[in-house]
Design goal:
CATH class: Alpha Beta
Low-confidence stretches: none
Helix content: 25-40%
Distance between the termini: 21 Å
Order of helices and strands: EHHHEHEHEHEEEHH
CATH superfamily: Aconitase, domain 4
Strand content: 15-25%
Largest sheet: 7 strands, mixed
CATH architecture: Alpha-Beta Barrel
Number of domains: 1
Shape: globular
Strand order of the largest sheet: 4-3-2-1-5-6-7
Mean pLDDT: 93
Structural class: alpha/beta
């Protein structure tokens, strides 16, 4: 899996209530969820996010509740990949389950700035900051996890027979 995009950056402890506020959890419409993504933290997010952008964050990204709405809202907003110093455990698993690519790389998340352009090769575990020329190495997902993500999530990969 390869990605190229511009960075939208957030700090530490971005919780699921900020990613998608609870007042919008009465819908399963992915577009509706995306239209409210990050609005309590960043009113400009939905107007400036572009398809293929990469979200970069600090420690404990996605802490809070176990709702899958948070990674769904991020993915549907156009974010292609999330890189963080660390992820809350349930957000990490929910992201894989819905097919949102994520990378845990503290060094990259610390150094990358808002607006930087990144080239990311998840197969090789390489994050290249095109803006600064810096390169970071991370552990690639195992092949079966990559298949889940590229299939669009766990349910889709079972439907498609990607995994058994």
């Amino acid at each position: 899996m390869k990605f190229q995009g511009d960075v939208i950056k957030y700090g530490d402890n971005v919780d699921t209530d900020v990613i998608i506020p609870a007042r919008y959890l009465n819908t399963i419409d992915k577009k509706e969820l995306a239209s409210h993504c990050m609005e309590d933290l960043d009113q400009t997010f939905v107007s400036r996010v572009k398809q293929g952008d990469i979200m970069v964050a600090g420690f404990n990204f996605g802490c809070g509740s176990s709702r899958e709405h948070a990674p769904i809202a991020i993915k549907e907003s156009g974010i292609a990949l999330v890189i963080a110093k660390s992820f809350a455990r349930i957000f990490y698993r929910n992201s894989i389950n819905i097919g949102l690519p994520i990378i845990e790389c503290p060094e990259a998340a610390e150094a990358i700035a808002e607006g930087n352009r990144l080239d990311v090769d998840m197969d090789q575990g390489i994050i290249r900051n095109v803006t600064t020329g810096a390169e970071y190495k991370t552990e690639p997902f195992p092949e079966f996890v990559q298949k889940i993500i590229t299939s669009g999530g766990l349910i889709e990969s079972i439907k498609k027979g990607t995994i058994q």
